[in-house]
Amino acid sequence: MTPTPFSVRGKRVVVVGAARSGVAAAELLVRRGATVTLTDLRESIEEEARLRSAGVALELGEHRPSTLVEADLIVLSPGVPPRLQVLDRARAAGVPITGELELASRWLRGRIVAITGTKGKSTTTTLTGRMLEAGGHRVLVGGNIGLALSAQVDESTEQTIHVVEASSFQLESTTAFRPWIAVLLNFSPDHLDRHENVEEYGAAKARIFARQEPTDWAVLNADDPASLTLARAGRAKRLLFSMTTDDRPVGEGIVIAGEAIVKRTAQGEEPLVPLSSVKLLGRHLLADVLAAAAVASIAGVDAAAMTKAVEGFTGLEHALEPAAEVGGVRFVNDSKATNIEAARRAIESFGDGLIVILGGKFKGGDFGDLRAPLRERHAQVVAMGEATPLIRAALAAAVPVHDAADMAAAVRTAFAIASPGGVVVLAPACASFDLFRDYAERGRVFKQEVQRLQESWNSMREQ
User: Fold this and answer.
1) DSSP H helical ranges for 314-438
2) Which residue of the set 63, 137, 191, 284 is catalytic?
3) Residues 180 and 299 in one domain
4) Which of 40, 178, 248, 266 has the greatest number of beta carbons closer than 10 A?
């Protein structure tokens, strides 16, 4: 029996949250024949005129319970927690509540490659898209980066591969979302300011596998036991990737052998990408390349196309991005390191004398996990933002901790205590919302302050 196509024609749909994904969902729903109301706690939004012109009704400054209760469907933008109290009455009244990712996926015609993990999603998603394009596929990249999935629906064809970065916020509300290839890069505590505990966060991530069938694929990190545990109930075929080169390597999968990334099978090893082609800073980012190569190999992309994509990829802004060198000190922007595990990986990418700028809005985890890698590198910490007392309490007994009132002070303090030949890395291990709009603004401000420092340093030398 053919399932009934999903339709919202003639239905009253309320979209909660007017961020990028909510706006895209509202516009898509109007095009699909729904009567749409978009509600947001902000008094005004940048897209107001455009949305009204498209036929979207706006309710700004509050979420009205009466509007929600009278809806036929409620769609949540990823930034809106499903536990939001104002949703309780609507839920009790039987109003269906879904997320933007779930909504959009029901109308896609092409196959989905969904990529999640605590760290590395954006890098892997972007590189996977480039590999698939180099291999001749029609690709649309988006989700948690770039275009919201709702903005891709109208362009979706049966030949399209949608490469989707999927966060726990997006996955937690999925019910029918079914990726052809689901990738779980790694798992460690994060977003505990949103999820009640690590178990709930893990359950949200594991939903990426929930609807897969035996004809689908799960790409998993063999070096990350937590990821393997979360995927254990999945029904899809598995392809492992691993950077382990010890005496117990992965028997089959995407691995490193000699000076290349290879696909290892029972029949032997097929070289895919020379390590010399990888231009990314930080060994942990190599795992993202392996994951992308795993997806590309499933999709039938040949080694030459994979290598071409890798050679042209120097990384993403705010992900171990070289910012400048001032007085022999290198500054590196890893503003996307918004959790403890990501900060640890950034720290482990550098050697002795490292200066690390930490801090922001704490999301959970244990700063104590950074003690060992910091101590091993004789590092020093510059702390800023709301999390400063937590950072000092966890780390001051292990390494010197310096306080800074803002990013300008953090950059100048870091430079003052750095040695020539050393590195200053912004790896906050926190969200940005105490001082900045998002991690991207934080990274840009960091680079601006480094540029100002460089200009004043050069001016001083010329005098």
Assistant:
1) 340-347, 371-376, 388-395, 407-417
2) 191
3) yes
4) 40
